[in-house]
Specification:
The chain has about 325 residues and is an alpha/beta fold. It has 3 domains: about 80 residues, Arc Repressor Mutant, subunit A; about 110 residues, D-Maltodextrin-Binding Protein, domain 2; about 120 residues, Periplasmic binding protein-like II (D-Maltodextrin-Binding Protein, domain 2). About 50% of the residues lie in helices and about 25% in strands. The chain has 13 helices and 13 strands. The strands form 3 sheets. Strands 3, 4, 5, 6, 7, 8, 9, 10 and 13 form a 9-stranded mixed β-sheet that branches. A two-stranded antiparallel ribbon has the order 1-2. A two-stranded antiparallel sheet has the order 11-12. Strand 3, helix 5 and strand 4 form a beta-alpha-beta unit. The longest helix has 27 residues. The N and C termini lie far apart (about 65 Å).
Length: about 325
Amino acid sequence: MNFLSLYYFVELSKDLHFTKTSERLFISQQTLSNNIKSLESYYNIKLINRKPKVTLTYAGEKLLAFAKELLIKNRDLEDMFSDINEDLSGSLKFGASISRATISLPKIFPVFTQKYPNVQINYIDDISKNLEPLIVNNELDFAIVISERPGLKIKSLKLMDDQIYLCVTDKLLKEYYPNDFEKIKEKSKNGAYVEDFKLLPFSMLSNRLGNRIESFFIEKNLEPKINFSSTYSQLILPFCSKSLSACFVSHATLICLKEDVTSDMNIFPLFHNGVAVRRPISLITQKERYMNSYSRFFQSLIIEHFNNIKNINLHDYLFEK
């Protein structure tokens, strides 16, 4: 029995398909099969049913739970020894949506690699609900998610409450509200409500935030006029800047996309039922994992970066002269 065989066994359990797993791991099916047979020989028990389809036996299910824990403990031990030996090489697995990675990685990466040039950062692009199980299963070291609820095996550190803004240019607002233009601007500067902008066309995010905002319209018996939708804020803000639609963008995203904000764009904080609309952004790790020196440094850079973002005065930053 060896750690590599246990690793292959854990990976096979995800697909339950020898071809898919071997292709994903860039090894031959024979190599994968030999490692599984080696484990069965070592423990003198059948771990995999191969026909009519691949399934885990009862013993295989027990080994899977053991193997996952053992591989985590082995990784912790390697990280401890790395610190003891002052070995400054290794890898970090980091997950976030492309929007939140764009906000953070370009600032963090140069500082990190300057101190740890021999540590590789492997980035995974995915949404929050898919990243959390990757942390639990030790497939990621860090993830930035929209959540503030730590799980049984997840340690959660809130980075910021990200205010959502309704963005609309003067040109578009005048086009749809020629008589109430100034009144709406004055009313919305400290808090905008979707019902006051019901006539506008919108570019809408096609994610949980977009669904949440659409629910605000529905609650007021309104249907938003959506002329474009995307999961990426980087795509919807340019439509807003060209006065083709209004949109909803967060504080952190606006900091990142400053070049797409025009001088006549209004940035109204979004409210609903008297409450500011915000998203909690958190950094999650596995609760019981040992954190080596370069992991601690990476975490400190993320925390510092988001502290800087949340303390920026948005209007001064976007419209500085």
